[in-house]
Amino acid sequence: MPSVAAKPSELPAEAHVLAPALFEPASPDRSYHEALGAAPALRLVFMRGSEDRRAAPVDFHGALFGLFGIAAAKDADLPVAAATALFDLPNVSAGGTWLRADPVHLRPDMGKLLLFDAAAFELTMEEAVRLTGEINAALAVEGIRLLVGRDPGRWYLSVGAPPAIKTVAPRAVRGHHIDPFLPRGAEARSWQRLANDVQMVLHRSPVNAAREARGEPAVNSVWFWGSGALPRPDAAWTTVVTDIPVAAGLAAAGRLPCMEAPPLHPPATGRWLYVPAAGLDAPERDGHGAQQGSMQVLDSACLAPLLAGLRSGSLAAVAVHLPHASYTLRRGDLWRFWRRRLPRPAPPA
Fold first, then answer.
1. What pLDDT score was predicted for residue 83?
2. Would you state the torsion angle of the CA atoms of residues 193, 195, 201, 205, taken in this order, to the nearest 10 degrees?
3. Do 84 and 185 belong to one domain?
4. Is residue 325 domain-resident?
5. Same-domain status, 126 and 205
6. Out of 26, 96, 212, 281, which could bridge 345 as a Cys pair, Cβ 3.0 to 4.6 Å?
7. Quick one: pLDDT at residue 307?
8. Confidence of residue 102 (pLDDT cuts 50, 70, 90)
9. What residues does 27 pair with on adjacent strands?
10. What secondary structure, in 3-state letters, does 268-321 show?
């Protein structure tokens, strides 16, 4: 009698963890290992788990989309905007083409412009709606209609076709001079002209006048990034557990069950993907202290319960994904006391 392959939901459970905290740029090895010392569950996975190295390091979005079977085409963006739009906006089709146009503050500094995204300043939903309304009214002749997501710092532009540009997420530009990070590609100048038009509207905005009168930074530009249409994800996850919009959007595109909070007990069957937000805004806090705090949160809220499930036998494996490798710890690996290997921190972006 031929064997019948088990469905993913019938297999012993595996838990895969992907966290922004583990994709931060390198800090000195000593401080990185000190941070790991405050995260014993994570340290155990690294020391005793099996290593599977990547051909080339990836950033957080590259790793996340890769776990859903999606890779960026050459000189094109990963469709982050299309994924987060599925989470943020009502009645959005999974096949639409979207571009993020997030509100930013550009600050002059010795002849350069430094970028600060909405993680660096307060922006209310009322202000976001009024600002986008002013932009839409002024640029309607160009077909511009910006939409605001669930968070006032996420703005969207629906486009007919993927723009011929390669962009950088504003989080990677935060606090830096913008010139090396501006969009590049065949249509880069067109999009920069549009950004300049938006800046002129924002310069005249009563919303910004009120913000500056209160001593708050003006929203004086938008940052285009994450363009494209989202293909159907090819991933056999049983459930996605995340509080990150882009991961929730990918789950929605793949019609996968998604929950915001981890279950009280580790799963008993299937392949579960955990994408916790620990470390998502670490650059806004203080260097090594931020890194250590993010790892502690990741360790106590996510990895420690999963390792408890591994020890009890309810989980078959726990995998942690890094920029340059993945580490998989199985129950039998817990007894590999002689293993003392630790990975190096993520390289600079």
1. 97
2. -160
3. yes
4. yes
5. yes
6. 26
7. 94
8. very high
9. none
10. CECEEEEECCCCCCHHHCCHHHHHHHHHHHHHHHHHHHHHHHHHHCCEEEEEEE
Top pLDDT among 145 and 285 is at: 145
E strand segments, the chain? 13-17, 50-53, 97-109, 112-117, 146-148, 155-158, 221-229, 239-242, 258-259, 271-275, 315-321, 325-330
Sequence length of the chain is 349
Determine the residue type at 39.
A
Q: What pLDDT shows up at residue 285? A: 40
Phi (first) and psi of residue 338, to 5 degrees: -75, -15
Is residue 2 included in any domain, yes or no?
A: no
Q: Which domain holds residue 180?
A: 80-229
Instruction: Assess if residue 322 is contained within a domain.
Output: yes
> What's the chain's average pLDDT?
87
344, part of any domain = no
Report the alpha-carbon distance of residue 88 to residue 332 in Å, rounded.
Answer: 42
Contact between residue 39 and residue 345 where contact means Cβ atoms under 8 Å apart = no
**What pTM value is reported for the model?**
0.89
Residue after which a domain boundary falls, among 208, 229, 250 = 229
Give residue 28's pLDDT: 56
